Amino acid sequence: MSAQAEPRGGSGVWDFLRNLSEKQKGSSSEQMPEEHPRMRIGRYAAAVLPAALLLYYCTHAALYAGEHHTFILASGRTYVVSLICFLLIVLALVPVRLSERANRITSWGWFVLAPFAVYFSLLYMNASKYSIKFFELNRIALVLTFVFLFLFETAVLILTGSIRFAVVTMAVLIATLGIANSFVISFRGMALSAADLFSLGAAASVASEYTYELDWYMYMELLCTLAICMFSLKLHGGRILHPAVRAAVLVLWCGVAGSFYYLCCRTDFLEQHDIRSQGFTHQLRYKNYDMIFTTLTTCFYLSVEKPEGYSLDKVKEIAAPYLTEDAGDDANAATADTDVRQASSENTTSQPDGKNKAASDDKNTASTSGNAAANAAIAAGEKPNLIVIMNESFADYPSIGKGLDLSEDCMPFIHSLPENTIKGTAYVSIFGGNTPNSEYEFLTGNTMGFLPASSVGFNLFVRGNLPSIASELKSQGYETLAMHPYRGTNYRRNLVYPQIGFDTFYTRDDFTQAKYIRSYISDDTLAQRIITEFNKHEESTDMPLFSYNVTIQNHGGYFASNTRNLDLDITVENPEVDQTKTTLYVNLIRESDQMLQNLVNYFEDKEAPTVIVMFGDHQANLGDDTYEYLVGNEDEISREERMEKYKVPFVIWANYDIPEETIERTSLNYLYSILADRLDFPMTGYQKYLLALSEKIPALCAQGYWGDDGNYYELEDESSPYHDLINEYNILEYNDIFGGKDRDLEFFADVQPD
């Protein structure tokens, strides 16, 4: 063989790439230094990434083909992905050799264009999912979005002096935010917000319970981001190294950033252009403002402004009527002509809307009445024990919207409770997640409606001792116990519960012999622990007990592969809904219903008077298809119709005689005041105020409220005939949360501090 002969395989792809590189070197007017070996290794490593993504695609072809193909090459998407990945591999392997001047011009040009590339790659991922049309987006929001991206990119440039690093950081962060947001929405039905930064621990604790699969749009976002990053890393110009230049850019940046903040946060500019953070769903806000700006606005509204007309004198003026001995009677007399209470023992035994096909079995029906000993104890003035259960994701889906048709009732016991029972529907401020917000509303009487959208009450608005049901009952001689069979650190419960008056808090670590359903401790295990702690308490003291319990069994993550210790006996007969999620969910609810039955069966014959309360924290996220069938398309229904996604059932039962009642509509901020009124519990001035307010405004949450005229109103509706009442409530709540030493303790706590 001649020495000049071309080696075997010399005409291959590798030599093509090498020759292309040599041509680039030769065409350059300025010779660049030889490539460092580490750069060469970096190029080879970079080429592995698109190859790995292509391999991932091929192994998950069913997720991306758009149809179920037996052979991955049968889909046109495969050719698109293959071409993109091949081009990225070429981009990685071929070194870019530009003159210093050309490199500098290209770098700065890319610095200007990169935010647009990042934005539109994210827009592609979200457009189909959330029906976003670029030309229908709010123009002001769009401009502010690009301003924000340029500000962020420039901030990284100032800190590092490198355009490459600035662009890569921005691209990776936005892509990560977008993909994480897609997963969060699919899991809990709510988008990410700035407030979620304060709940990262809680999110991380349940993250392992979900299944993560990239959909086509997430996958394409990864490819686009990888392309942006790889191109950026090819550029070596555009560095700001001189301290004076960097300082000048910093001054300019501070001016623009300050103006941006002032415009968005200190003026009503956004409201003037129909931009608001409050709203029902991410879909609707994304359609108007896109994802980046929607998430950004949650940062603007983390602070809480003083309500109109707020002063300490105004607080005392509103509170004064409820601090007299007969305040409760006066408040009730003032609203006696309203028709909020729907007392009707005849209706309590009916099944909701006739949605369930099978009637309850005899063993599941309730026939409880107050026992003689408990009645005698109440007559003698004994304080009843109070057991409260906030049941995770507990909802009555046969009564939501069109309703689910089930093979049998999933809540037979609750639906059959006829005696000594108050039950009905409560409206909540959350959907799919952020459980502590429902806890916050029930325990304090404050509504999340006056607080920043997507914020978490426990994380942001409990700083120091805060009056609550627990602190009030504790002042009345109750022992206060909280239990949650999961991590106690989630949402700062381990810190918050002592601050609001709980003596003891048991977490998952205290449940050593527990039955698990799926990956969570079962409701039945918690019920048995409630009984155990009650018996220990009864044996050791004559004090009444307030037992507050938050379940975990029904938490999200409704996957067919996760049904440990759960029989799927109940079937869903609506083909339009997500069968996997709904079937698993209704069978979980059957377990919760059985848990309540076990507790009632145990306490109905106990001599100690006992009240059991159970309600849901929010509805479960059972998929877009399910809710489109139940409630309707988000783009086509009214805000009042969307309220169907925010209602949960509640039950109040006693082992002694109480009037039966069905309450058509209330909300969690009112629930304890209603309980205290019906069962003659002592009440604070604030609770008397809330009871009176509930007669005028029967239900109020973050999504809006109903007046006693039967009409629905938005909280921000200044034309509402209830606007002044809403503002007075806001004034009182602001004093309770932010009043500090100026909080009216006589009104909120009915006790003086130590």
Report on the architecture of this protein.
- The chain is α/β, with parallel strands linked by helices and 754 residues long.
- It has three domains: 7-97, no CATH class; 102-303, no CATH class; 312-748, 3-Layer(aba) Sandwich (Alkaline Phosphatase, subunit A).
- Helices cover 49% and strands 8% of the residues.
- The protein has an eight-stranded mixed sheet with strand order 4-3-7-1-8-9-2-10, with helices on both faces.
- Strand 5 and strand 6 form a beta hairpin.
- The longest helix has 31 residues, at 100-130.
- The protein is globular and about 95 Å long.
- The relative contact order is 0.11.
- The model is unreliable at 1-11, 24-30, 67-72 and 326-367 (pLDDT under 50).
- Which percent band covers the strand fraction? 5-15%
Number of strands: 13
CATH fold-level assignment of the largest domain: Alkaline Phosphatase, subunit A
Helix fraction by DSSP (H/I, runs of at least 4): 40-55%
Q: Uncertain spans, ≥5 residues at pLDDT below 50?
A: 1-11, 24-30, 67-72, 326-367
Give the domain tally: 3
The SS-based structural class is alpha/beta
Mean pLDDT, all residues: 81
**What characterizes the major β-sheet?**
8 strands, mixed
At the first level of CATH, what is the class of the largest domain? Alpha Beta
Going by CATH, the architecture of the largest domain would be 3-Layer(aba) Sandwich
Indicate the overall shape. globular
Q: In whole angstroms, how far apart are the ends?
A: 101 Å
Write down the Rg: 31 Å
State the CATH superfamily name of the largest domain. Answer: Alkaline Phosphatase, subunit A
Strand sequence of the main sheet, in spatial order?
4-3-7-1-8-9-2-10
Tally of individual helices: 28
